[in-house]
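Structure first, sequence second, as always.
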């Protein structure tokens, strides 16, 4: 009698061997995944924001020196003399390396009345920048510089010589804010906040307080045009930090 075997029966020993080999491997893989991820691993990711403030201890002042004359050379020469007087006044209160003059701008002036363009002279303009590391001298500096030659106060910006401590304080506040948010979410779901899984700094901002005086100051009234000392109150530098934190849930 001729015996016949179905293909399935013939493959049974092979399937059995394959099952015996893959079953332990699958169990081992599952154990490894549980080791890496944790049994029933769950996390919550939140953002935190923190703000810290500090009084500024330095300032940058921008003065404008503007002169007008019938010829370009005369406007340039008058501007050079006025700029030199203004810078000498600044040197009486700050060091040389805290003063700089920016590029001179020289341009023609036209009269457009009667629908015609008529050349009436030239204007020279130069910006003087003075860095101040003692805010107590700031009012005297501004008054002295505009008395000697500057006829425009373009603006004052305040800053911190060392931002690191304020930034650290803002980051700490942001981290605390993130944990508070995570705990609120966890309590709402009847779970607990565990250890930190991941944390990253997102960004931070620090706008500078500014004082601006855009109106041109007539040279004859420079002393009166300079702001009063109380006008220089800088306020505070505000630093804002943002973080993103992932916490394990228990």
């Amino acid at each position: 009698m001729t015996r016949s075997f179905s293909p399935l029966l013939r493959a049974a020993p092979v399937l059995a061997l394959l099952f015996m080999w893959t079953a332990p491997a699958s169990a081992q893989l599952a154990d490894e995944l549980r080791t890496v991820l944790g049994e029933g691993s769950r996390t919550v990711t939140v953002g935190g924001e923190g703000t810290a403030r500090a009084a500024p201890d330095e300032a940058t002042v921008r003065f404008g020196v503007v002169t007008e004359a019938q010829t370009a050379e005369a406007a340039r020469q008058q501007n050079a003399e006025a700029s030199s007087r203004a810078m000498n006044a600044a040197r009486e209160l700050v060091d040389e390396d805290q003063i700089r003059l920016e590029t001179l701008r020289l341009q023609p002036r036209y009269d457009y009345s009667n629908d015609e363009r008529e050349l009436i002279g030239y204007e020279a303009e130069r910006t003087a920048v003075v860095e101040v590391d003692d805010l107590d001298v700031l009012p005297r500096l501004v008054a002295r510089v505009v008395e000697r030659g500057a006829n425009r106060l373009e603006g004052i910006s305040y800053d911190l010589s060392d931002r690191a401590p304020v930034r650290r304080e803002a980051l700490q506040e942001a981290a605390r804010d993130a944990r508070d948010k995570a705990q609120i979410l966890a309590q709402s779901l009847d779970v607990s906040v565990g250890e930190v899984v991941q944390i990253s700094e997102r960004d931070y901002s620090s706008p500078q307080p500014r004082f601006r005086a855009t109106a041109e100051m007539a040279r004859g009234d420079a002393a009166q045009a300079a702001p009063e000392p109380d006008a220089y109150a800088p306020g505070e530098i505000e630093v804002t930090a943002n973080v993103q934190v992932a916490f394990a849930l228990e």
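Margin note: Helices lie at 7-37, 72-91, 138-148, 164-188, 222-225.
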